Amino acid sequence: MKTYHVAIVGATGAVGTELLRLLEVREFPVASLRLLASERSAGRTLPFRGQSLVVERLDANAFENVDIAFFSAGASRSRDFAPLAVRSGALVIDNSSAFRMDPAVPLVVPEINPEDICLHKGIIANPNCSTIILLMALAPLRKLAPIRRVVVSTYQAASGAGAQAMAELIEQTGDVLREKPIVPRVFPYPIAFNLFCHNTKIDETGYNEEERKMIFESRKILHDPHLKVTATCVRVPVVRAHSESVNVEFAPGTRPSLEEARKALEAFPGVALVDNREANHFPMPIEASGRDEVLVGRLRYDLSNENAIDLFVSGDQILKGAALNALQIAEWWIKEGSQHA
Asked: Which terminus has fewer CB within 10 Å in the chain: N or C?
């Protein structure tokens, strides 16, 4: 089997460390592995396949002889260093927002649009975590009937803001229980026992950046520029795994039956159906955390709209929402896409 020289940019962050673990547990064909991060993290060691790898400082010469570079260090780092990695001969799989809406860069969920991987010109973008989790539920339903409109409300975990945000939630929870004052540092407001509008910039339309990502990324991935999507994105006091309440409206007269929808979701790779009305057991972030699959359930007809179905989704934001999806892109490229390079 051919092996590859791999680099992880942002190796000490929440997604980077998850990528490192996945490379090992999924037996990715690594010939060598270079861990890259800021000067602050350089010199740290991280375990991989029984060895301790030293984290190196990210610089312009870091990608020599690298075949695949995973980027998860923010949009500005990606914009600065991803083109350098490409010029050095690496395939870049970028987890930031830097290139997602670039028409020349494929935006990929491998279970949904893997064929787009072959269109890359050196960079493949990993979608936003909330978008991935939403589309894993929509894609199998879209095969049953045309989808006209999607209304989604998100319940987004602290993990989406990184390791420090997860730590802040845990710390604040203890402070509240001990009746100590709360001093937010990562988030703009207290996250323990609270929820608030997603902490991204709001534009003149009143939508925040996370909501806009879900709208425009969904259209690009599904190759449906006219798909109607509206989103309300909210931070909630959950450590890891995002949840979403989704209303799916189909073309008039085409709404599938709930049984058809259940069968389609059960058969779709990467989805686990959790839909037990008798036990009132549906997707929960506590059960989605640490799982590769996106959990989908709470399927019911929308009583206010004869063309719509309601459902509820939970998915691990760090896994399928980020690190796992990126690695699956690389795995597909190795198996299929590299033959067309």
From this structure: N
Chain centroid to Cα 232, Å, comes to: 17
* 171 plus 267 within the same structural domain: yes
Binding-site residues from annotation for phosphate: 100
Beta carbons within 10 angstroms of residue 294's beta carbon:
29
129 is catalytic: yes
Q: Which range of residues forms the domain containing residue 257? A: 131-316
Query: pLDDT means per 10 residues in the chain (341 residues)?
Result: 95 95 97 94 92 94 96 96 97 97 98 97 98 98 98 97 94 97 96 96 96 98 97 97 98 98 98 98 98 98 98 97 98 78 49
Looking at the fold, whether 105 and 147 belong to one and the same domain comes out as no
Q: What is the distance between the terminal CA atoms of the chain, rounded to a whole angstrom?
A: 18
Q: Tally the domains of the chain.
A: 2
- Report pLDDT for 41: 87
Q: What's this model's pTM, rounded to 2 decimal places?
A: 0.95
Cα–Cα distance for residue pair 3/31, rounded to 1 Å:
5
Q: Which helix (H) or strand (E) holds 180?
A: none
Output the pLDDT for position 1: 82
Strand partners of residue 155: 234, 243
Known binding residues:
12-15, 40-41, 100, 156, 159-160, 209, 235, 317
198: annotated active-site residue: no
Q: Kindly name the residue from 5, 120, 198, 242 that is annotated as catalytic.
A: 242
Q: What is the pLDDT of residue 6?
A: 98
Q: Which residue numbers belong to the known binding site for NADP(+)? A: 12-15, 40-41, 159-160, 317
Same domain, 330 and 236: no
Instruction: Give the CATH number, domain containing residue 52.
Output: 3.40.50.720
